[in-house]
Design goal:
The complex is a heterodimer of chains A (about 150) and B (about 725).
Chain A (H helix, E strand, L loop, with lengths): L1 E5 L2 E5 L7 H9 L17 E4 L2 E4 L12 E3 L12 H8 L9 H14 L5 H7 L9 H13 L1
Parallel strand pairs in A: 1-5
Antiparallel strand pairs in A: 1-2, 3-4, 3-5
Helix pairs in contact in A: 2-5
Chain B lengths: L1 H17 L30 E3 L5 E4 L9 H13 L6 E4 L3 H6 L19 H23 L6 E4 L2 E4 L4 E4 H9 L29 H6 L14 E7 L6 E5 L2 H4 L4 E7 L3 E6 L2 H10 L2 E4 L8 H11 L6 E6 L2 H6 L3 E9 L11 E7 L2 E7 L3 H12 L6 E6 L13 H11 L6 E4 L2 H6 L7 E9 L5 E10 L2 H5 L1 H6 L26 E7 L14 H19 L3 H6 L6 H14 L10 E9 L2 E12 L3 E12 L6 H21 L4 E2 L2 E2 L17 E6 L15 H16 L14 E2 L1
Parallel strand pairs in B: 2-3, 7-17, 15-16, 19-20, 23-26, 23-27
Antiparallel strand pairs in B: 1-2, 4-5, 5-6, 7-10, 8-11, 9-10, 12-20, 13-18, 14-15, 14-17, 18-19, 21-22, 22-23, 24-25
Helix pairs in contact in B: 1-11, 2-4, 4-5, 11-12, 16-20, 19-20
The chains are: A alpha+beta (about 150), B alpha+beta (about 725).
Chain lengths: ~150, ~725
């Protein structure tokens, strides 16, 4: 049994402490916007914020998230208003299949928190998510647009 | 791939009939259906169009959305002819079961071969037009005026002499009760007059995708559902010898440890993580069989022998290549090779099944709902009226989720062992990597001959490697006397993949060398390797002739004006006639594929002899018509991510009969830092044939980059991936 704070709510979760945070979020809390893509922190589809930093939840044991503030994609929009990254994604028609995009949006939201006006080099260094549809050209445009918003 | 489409359809119908579903054959016209057979809640005008009283329109199309934008494009085509308010349009999938009951009114569900729009544009437009005519007729009937006096625009019908108006929502119910118009009376719009189609409409579903609300197959939840993890024998063709269920059956959450067919073991648990970790801990003994001796080295040796084998299937032939080679003043020869590759969809394979003796239902992200349906029939043993498939949008498809429904079969076989309980089967990434339907391996020996004045007199292109159709559609290959015509995509003598050059003497032939590794249709299919073989060798020939690669190509393109047009377009845009910026080098390639003409020109720089930066790729596409230019641009840019990942990073190697790569650390994919700037030139040339968009462009990126690499370094790289040569994309 672990207690997790997810999107501002406290959850008592019945999992083995070594269960990855990803699966606790998806299967116990029931929030499926955070995706499984590889399970080995390669692809970034499972990206969430832990105390504001982007982390790959597939390799973080649920027990290591105790006492931290977890934000998932479902908690990014506030009061029914899309986060500026989500809005830029809609405006620029970024997603193709969309499966990796929630993780991509979370990674970018954390980047903009650290670097409100990232350069292309900043983007290259910190956004390392895999997208097999290949949305990168629109992702880059939308990041710059979100930074200006 | 139309042959495979037809056969697929036939196989599906045969397998359906075999289990007792007596159904009518043949594709019906979309407006031939009487609305009375429908039982939808939303008033149905016809199969394609449903309109609610508030004027919202639901458009139903059978193809699958997997990120390529086909659903948005098809809806645009229906809406264009329907003359409805685009802001009120949404889409829905019909189910394969519904399609069957209505004589396949929605046509084929198969979404591959870049066919989504190009092979259904006519009947979906006719469906939209028929609905408009019925709506106008209903309004005219209500007003007791001739329909010819009424006109529909933006979901409003106006009786022109009196100015009376009524909205679609008000007459949809009455329209649905009218007979469908005669097909001969339906006139489709000239694309020049399109207002909705041809425009860069945003794709449907984006808000749900960026908020996490979109439900993929992986995310499905059903009441009482359990989760399954599976492992199939990693050596293809191998079987289970035994497994020790007792070792894990007592673990928390584990419901069942069971065998799936002869080849796989699954663990079913409350959560997937419990199932997956129990499966990892389960002792399984495999009977790997003779294939356990096969390796990449042994496969390569077999293919190599095929390069000089006496027997080969002729794919394209002109003049007399033997005489040309024998009389040559000079010959040039080169050997190329292309590896196995995995589709690596971001969403691993999955399906959810619920079985009872009275009903088998499956929820699945699929490129072909009807192929899924056929798999459900076969695995469940139930007749068609007791089966149903519910499609979910895909987290990537790329060819893995169409012809192959192995995960559906597995889910049903598991659910049959737990009647009444919905079972969600999810593959791990490792299972997805091991159990691919791989891009086939191919080697190629090319020989070019020149006369004493350095004119190219002949070209022989000998392919040696695996046939996809021999494995997937053996009846087609058998009927063709053992030949797989799809092997010649991009270099064929005619059709949707015809060669874009005319050579004085030429032979393209294929020594078929099949292996135990299951091949599949991988985005672009056989154009990926053929474009590298041909377009890199064209550069080699140009170099041998001492001629500019573009000028050299043009000599053989007089009879191929649309190939030439895209080649010229990219050459002009990249500034081929002027020197490249300092430190940069250019390469170019062109091809016709899936009935579209494509070309790419790139600019790269190479640091330290092995660090390649692709600065810029200019891409031109002539797909006949451009239903949504914004989505075409995205397909072009995305194709290059797929194609350049394949070129630089991706190879599935075989050791002891199994695939060695198990995750993205050993099967890498491009990141944003490596993404070149892509400039698209969309130049639809019209004509009777519509071309595809999802795949053609993928094939020109790799040869353009390889040709630029030669320009930069003087080195010809003739095998993929470049990581094997110590070359990386930066």
């Amino acid at each position: 049994m672990v207690q997790l704070n997810i999107n501002g709510r406290s959850h008592q979760i019945d999992v083995e402490p070594d269960t990855p945070l990803l699966w606790a979020i998806r299967e116990q809390v029931g929030l499926t916007g955070t995706k499984y893509g590889c399970g080995v922190a390669q692809c970034g589809a499972c990206t969430v914020h832990m105390d504001g930093a982007a982390v790959r939840s597939c390799v973080i044991p649920a027990s290591a998230a105790v006492g931290k503030k977890i934000t998932t994609i479902e908690g990014l929009a506030k009061g029914g208003v899309l986060h500026k990254v989500q809005k830029a994604w809609v405006d620029h028609d970024v997603p193709q299949c969309g499966y990796c995009q929630t993780g991509m949006v979370m990674a970018v939201a954390a980047l903009l928190q650290d670097k409100p006006r990232p350069t292309d080099a900043d983007i290259d260094a910190s956004i390392t998510n895999i997208c097999r549809c290949g949305t990168f050209q629109q992702v880059r445009e939308a990041i710059h647009a979100a930074a200006k918003a | 791939m139309d042959q495979s489409l037809n056969l697929n359809r036939r196989e599906f119908l045969i397998s359906t009939a075999a289990v007792g579903g007596g159904l009518a054959l043949g594709l019906q016209l979309p407006f031939g259906v009487n609305a009375a057979v429908a039982a939808d809640v939303v008033p149905e005008v016809n199969a394609w169009v449903m309109i609610r009283p508030d004027n919202t329109v639901v458009i139903r199309v059978a193809r699958s959305e997997m990120g390529q934008g086909t659903i948005t494009g098809l809806a645009q085509l229906v809406a264009e002819e329907l003359e409805c308010d685009w802001s009120k349009v949404s889409t829905e999938y019909p189910t394969p079961g519904q399609n069957l009951k209505r004589n396949r009114v929605w046509g084929s569900f198969s979404t591959g071969g870049s066919r989504g729009i190009r092979t259904s544009h006519e009947y979906v437009r006719q469906g939209g037009a028929a609905a408009r005519m019925m709506l106008v007729q209903a309004a005219a009937d209500q007003w007791k005026v001739p329909a010819s006096e009424c006109r529909a625009v933006n979901s409003i019908i106006t009786h022109q002499p009196t100015g009376r108006t009524v909205t679609y929502g008000k007459v949809a119910d009455a329209a649905g009760k009218l007979p469908a118009p005669d097909i001969k009376t339906i006139q489709l719009k000239d694309p020049k007059n399109w207002k909705i189609a041809g425009k860069p409409m945003k794709r449907f579903g984006t808000v749900d995708k960026v908020t996490g609300r979109q439900v993929y197959g992986f995310d499905l939840k059903l009441p009482g559902m359990v989760n399954a993890a599976i492992m199939e024998c990693p050596v293809f063709g191998g079987k289970i010898r035994n497994f020790d269920a007792a070792k894990v059956s007592g673990r928390k959450g584990v419901k069942k440890v069971l065998q799936v067919g002869d080849t796989a073991v699954a663990v079913v648990a409350d959560t997937w993580w419990q199932a997956k970790t129990a499966l990892d801990a389960l002792p399984i003994e495999w009977d790997s069989g003779a294939n356990a001796k096969v390796s990449s080295t042994s496969i390569a040796a077999e293919l190599k022998a095929g390069l000089t084998a006496a027997q080969a299937f002729v794919g394209n032939k002109s003049g007399d290549i033997k005489t040309a080679l024998a009389g040559a003043a000079k010959t040039i020869e080169a050997e190329y090779a292309y590896p196995y590759q995995n589709h690596a969809c971001m969403e691993p394979m999955n399906a959810t099944a619920r079985y009872t003796p009275d009903k088998c239902e499956v929820w699945v992200p699929t490129q072909d709902g009807e192929a899924s349906f056929a798999a459900v029939l076969e695995a469940s043993g139930l007749p068609a009226d007791k089966c149903e498939v519910y499609k979910l949008d895909l987290g990537g498809g790329f060819g893995r989720r169409g012809a192959f429904q192995d995960y559906v079969t597995q889910a049903v076989l598991i659910a049959k062992q737990m009647p009444g309980i919905p079972v969600k089967l999810l593959w791990s990434r490792e299972e997805d990597m091991r159990q691919g339907r791989f891009h086939p391996v191919m080697q190629c020996r090319l020989t070019g001959s020149f006369d004493a004045s350095n004119n190219l007199t002949g070209l022989h292109m000998r392919l040696s490697g695996q046939s996809i159709l021999a494995a997937v559609r053996p009846a087609i290959v058998e009927k063709a006397g053992g030949k797989d015509s799809a092997t010649f995509q991009g270099v064929a003598d005619s059709g949707e993949h015809s060669l874009g050059y005319t050579f004085p003497n030429m032979l393209v032939d294929h020594a078929m060398r099949n292996t135990h590794v299951p091949p599949g249709f991988w985005r672009g299919v056989n154009i990926n390797q053929n474009a590298i073989f041909l377009e890199c060798f064209m550069d080699e020939l140009a170099h041998a002739a001492g001629e500019d690669p573009v000028a050299f190509r043009r000599r053989f393109m007089a009879g191929h004006p649309r190939n030439l047009a895209v080649l010229n377009a990219v050459a002009e845009r990249i500034g081929w006639d002027r020197p490249a910026p300092k430190g940069r080098h250019r390469g170019i390639a062109q091809m016709k594929a899936f009935d579209s003409f494509v070309a790419a020109a790139c600019e790269i720089s190479v640091e330290g002899g092995n660090k390649v930066k692709v600065h810029r790729i200019v891409a031109a596409t002539d797909s006949g018509y451009a239903v949504n230019p914004a989505q075409i641009e995205r397909q072009i840019a995305g194709s290059f991510v797929y194609g350049l990942s394949a070129l630089f990073m991706q190879e599935c190697t075989v050791k002891d009969g199994r695939i060695e790569q198990e995750n993205f650390h050993s099967y890498n994919s491009m990141r944003i830092a490596q993404m070149p700037r892509v400039e698209s030139i969309i130049m639809p040339g019209g004509g009777p044939v519509w071309g595809g968009v999802g795949e053609p462009t993928i094939c020109v990126a790799a040869p353009a980059v390889l040709n630029a690499f030669f320009k930069a370094t003087g080195k010809r790289i003739r095998s993929v991936p470049l990581k094997n040569h110590g070359i990386e994309l930066v």
